Amino acid sequence: MNTLVRENHTGGERQATEQFTAPAATVLENADGYTLEVEMPGVNKENLEMWVENNELTILGRRALPSVEGALIHRESRSENFQRSFELDPSIDAGRISAKIEQGVVTLTLPKAEQVKPRKIAVS
Amino acid sequence: MSLIRYQTPCSVMWPSLNRWANLRDDLDTLLDLPFWNGSSRQSQLFSGWTPALDLYQNNDNIVAIVELPGMRKEDIEISLQDGTLTISGERKEEQSKENGATRTERFTGKFCRSITLPTRVDANKVNATYKDGMLTVTLPKAEEAKPKQIQINLN
User: How many interface pairs between A and B have CB atoms less than 8 angstroms apart?
Assistant: First the structure.
């Protein structure tokens, strides 16, 4: 598979106990790597968690919504926190992934490895 | 859902929405239901981007909260006319052409939301803040719209 990511729907243990909503994401590719933009309105730096496990990148954002006193008279937003997992392409150097969050948009830079080295496979 | 190849959200969404709208039109014609006035909802559906809007009310204020991730402050416009609050704006495509998109779910382009406020507000004291991609518009109620306790006088 040549492209960055395949989505993983199975999720981890967290998903069994908590409902999440999948944030909208845009994936851009250039010669140096990939850029992943994920929309998480209401999430700030402190409430954002990201980890790579088993070649899978997971982004979890907990919403810190503006607290308003009073009665809710019209609602369109969803209250669930955001979580989404992406399978990383082997060409990505997972050790050099960097991220920033700005006005509710997480931007991840996923650089490609300088050289995708051939790997030996041991026979057990 | 495979995450591999480029798809515009529109190309996925529109056919089904078209069918939905057609079906509804058919139902309207067939059953002649004037009370099902969903024309505003329909126009929102077809504009592409409809940021979620929540509305709160307390004794002093009406508060609108809109999810607008990744906007610039200058690109958001808020106006108030005849008791209707309108929030509009545009998200510009920032990425250069050399980047190929393998997946596009984020909306770019214009949006416009209008909501009729339940009470009169003081247009001069409206306050808006933008933080973490959430726009909060606080609209103080006009004096005559605030709830009032009325004293009973005993003779």
Answer: 134
Fold that domain B49-96+106-143 belongs to in CATH:
Immunoglobulin-like (2.60.40)
Q: What residues of chain B lie within 8 A of the CB of A68, using their CB?
A: 56, 58, 63, 65, 136
Decide the pairing of beta strands B84-91 and B76-81. Answer: antiparallel
A79 interfacial to chain B (CB closer than 8 Å): no
pLDDT 10s digits, B48-98: 678 999 999 998 999 999 999 999 999 999 999 988 999 999 887 765 555
Instruction: Show me where the domains of chain B are located.
Output: 1-46, 49-96+106-143
Q: Which of B68, B77, B61 is nearest to B119 (CA)?
A: B61
ipTM: 0.77
CA angle A108, A110, A115 (to 5 degrees): 170
Enter the pTM of the model.
Answer: 0.71
Name which of A23, A12, A14, A97 is nearest A63 in CA terms: A23
